[in-house]
Design a protein that fits this description.
By secondary structure, the chain is an alpha+beta fold. It has two domains: about 30 residues; about 90 residues, Nucleic acid-binding proteins (OB fold (Dihydrolipoamide Acetyltransferase, E2P), Beta Barrel), CATH 2.40.50. About 25% of the residues lie in helices and about 35% in strands. The chain is built from three helices and seven strands, in the order H-E-H-H-E-E-E-E-E-E. A five-stranded mixed barrel has the order 2-4-5-7-6. The protein is elongated. The termini are far apart. The model has no long low-confidence stretch (mean pLDDT about 85).
Length: about 130
Amino acid sequence: MTATQRLFLGGVVITFATMALAYLGASSSWQFYLTVDELAADAASFRESRVRISGKVARDSLQIAPDRSQASFVLQGETAKLNVQYTGLIPDNLAEGIEVVVEGRLEDTGLVRGNKVLTRCASKYSSNG
């Protein structure tokens, strides 16, 4: 095998290894999320599992610690509700009545222990036409 062929083969191996690592790293963030109602309908199969749940922060349920390190709220779907206990960096725009995605663990008690909250603001992206 010539030096050029070895360099080419080495480049191909490095390229594929880089692509594989990039795919593995990114695929963890490609997980879909469940709605509150979907999770409530099949909660037994998600107990003690990591989940992503989409829903609305229920009115009169949001409580944020004075140091903004913890929050608790009710995540509301069309028919079901879930209690969420969140620890971590709280988004500035976390408020009652907005859509959020909570990532965390569903406990046996039905409580979601969240470690990531993503707020969604559809009105910010709506067209004026």
